[in-house]
Design goal:
With about 160 residues, the chain is of the alpha/beta class. The protein has two domains: about 5-60, no CATH class; about 65-155, Rhodanese-like domain (Oxidized Rhodanese, domain 1, 3-Layer(aba) Sandwich). The protein is about 35% helix and about 15% strand. The protein has five helices and five strands; from the N terminus they run H-E-H-E-H-E-H-E-H-E. The chain has helices at about 35-60, 65-75, 85-90, 110-115, 130-140; strands at about 65, 80-85, 100, 120-125, 145-150.
Amino acid sequence: MIERPPAARPTAGLPGRQTAQAPAGLPARKGGTPMKKRILPLLFSALLMLTACGGAASGAAYQEISQEKAKEMMDTQEVLILDVREQDEYDGGHIPGAVLLPLGSISEESAARVIPEKDTTVLVYCRSGSRSKKAAKALAELGYTGIYEFGGIRTWAYGIES
């Protein structure tokens, strides 16, 4: 019987194909290199840590709630109702007690004028729900912690004022 050197061992199931032996001190592994076996778990762990740290550090979270829940919060606790539409839309009708802060003008300074405390409970809405999601995210990224987004005034069933 002829013995082949370790570096010339054929790969199982692939006649004529050859694979190299793992370097001394590293375990051999079918179908890949020993380095892949070690790097993939490290990359996965690093990704998990970055995701967890990024989410916690930025604190950029807000909650999406139903309009029913928003109305209940308005009726039972102290909240700031934030309309993020444009001035003409606000003038055409808004939820009673709402304060206007158009999405396009949200900055650290403008938000601080309207919402001086970062832990204020803020209920955010717009016309259909698209701008309110963007505004809620922007406010959360500015460090506001009590942000609740509840969609748009088009489907608001509890009355509006001009």
